[in-house]
Write a structure and sequence with these properties.
Structural class: alpha/beta
Bound molecules: guanosine-5'-diphosphate-beta-L-fucopyranose
Order of helices and strands: EHEHEHHEHEEHEEEHEEHEHHH
Shape: globular
Number of helices: 11
Low-confidence stretches: 322-329, 340-345
Largest sheet: 6 strands, parallel
Radius of gyration: 20 Å
Length: about 350
């Protein structure tokens, strides 16, 4: 039986793992911790957490995260906070003899000037996009640390590299959020809070040109893949967890999918005074497909629809980033109704 510590357990991916586990019988023990349980930028607090939990395995999701605009304005904090968190967690996991640690990176860490599609061998081949160099270098260092712990102590510390993630329990705060929760929150405000205009005269603003391309993985699909990696992937080398290349969409197509989910009757326009960020970060999932050829990703529009419906309690309550148990119940109910909760085959 594994005793699995999930750091960042109250976030988007942490809650998705909780939702998937609720739907499965597992003999393993899972402990989800949030920043209120331990300050992982502090070494003693990290040690105290591991002394208390004594995990055999760690799914390390805790990090300072955010969308393009939050990264652009805070590269130093993203770099320093994430370096501290990652060094504390990996060193303490080593001191506790943890059998396996899976850390979560992101496809934004790859070089900006590169050939496509990107694959796992290209992590360190050049500078990342200037909008998120802080986050990117801190996350790249995890891969370096994983190899160093393996070389010196034989540790099985590995990493996954998801593409952009979205789903229930996301952070909707516009100033820090990623594009999908940011749009969901702004569309919600426009439809339900903006009373001065009839619906068909309302205008939704897409930040940037709408042309950048992104691959988006639904948090519940990612959760299932993380659980598969925990039991089946025993390499220190990183593994990209992304939808197929042909499922890449433009930011404007994302806006259209969100508008459809809200049944928005108004107009979509682009505000090119806002930054576009990286044009694309097209990632190959060939390695994943060689290991799990039949994995079925949720259809993008269905997942957007579910994410919009799951966001209502949070947005209606005005608490744009919370992780109350009520949400788990509401989302399980919604996801059950939409038949989204299925097993990895
Ligand atoms: O998810 P996002 O913020 O980050 O997406 P990245 C940014 C793209 O969406 C840009 C456009 O092209 C924005 O112009 N966009 C349109 C919006 N409307 C909105 C909105 O309401 N909010 C936001 N945030 N964007 C991040 C990295 O890059 O990807 C992070 O900076 C992390 O470190 C994350 O890796 C997964 O995809 O550009």
């Amino acid at each position: 039986m594994k005793k699995v510590l999930v750091t960042g357990g109250s976030g988007l991916v942490g809650n998705a793992i909780k939702t998937v586990i609720n739907g499965e019988s597992s003999e393993d023990e899972w402990i989800f911790v949030a920043s209120k349980d331990a300050d992982l930028t502090d070494n003693n607090s990290t040690r105290a957490l591991f002394d208390r939990i004594k995990p055999t395995h760690v799914v390390h999701l805790a990090a300072m995260v955010g969308g393009l605009f939050h990264n652009m304005n805070n590269n130093l904090d993203f770099l320093r906070k994430n370096m501290q968190i990652n060094d504390n967690v990996l060193q303490t996991a080593y001191e506790h003899g943890c059998i396996k640690v899976i850390s979560c990176l992101s496809t934004c860490i790859f070089p900006d000037k590169t050939s496509y599609p990107i694959d796992e061998t290209m992590v360190h081949d050049g500078a990342p996009h200037p909008s998120n160099y802080g986050y990117s270098y801190a996350k790249r260092l995890i891969d370096v640390l994983n190899h160093a712990y393996h070389d010196k102590h034989g540790c099985l510390f590995t990493s996954i590299i998801p593409c952009n993630i979205f789903g229930p329990h996301d952070n909707y705060r516009p100033e820090v959020s990623h594009v999908i929760p940011g749009m969901i929150n702004r569309m919600y405000q426009l439809i339900y809070e903006e009373k001065s205009l009839p619906d068909n005269e309302k205008v939704f603003v897409v930040y940037g040109s709408g042309k950048p391309l992104r691959q988006f993985i639904y948090s519940l699909d990612l959760a299932k893949l993380i659980m598969w990696v925990l039991d089946n992937y025993d390499s220190v080398d990183p593994l990209i967890l992304s939808v197929d290349e042909e499922n890449e969409v433009t930011i404007f197509e994302v806006a259209k999918a969100v508008a459809k989910a809200f049944d928005f009757k108004g107009k979509l326009i682009c505000d090119t005074s806002k930054a576009d960020g990286q044009y694309k970060k097209t990632a190959s999932n060939k390695k994943l497909r060689s290991l799990l050829p039949n994995f079925k990703f949720s259809a993008f529009e269905d997942a957007i629809d579910a994410s919009v419906k799951c966001s209502f309690p949070q947005l209606r309550s005005g608490r744009v980033c919370m992780d109350a148990d009520f949400l788990c119940y509401w989302c399980n109910f919604m996801l059950g109704v939409m038949g989204i909760l299925t097993k990895v085959s």
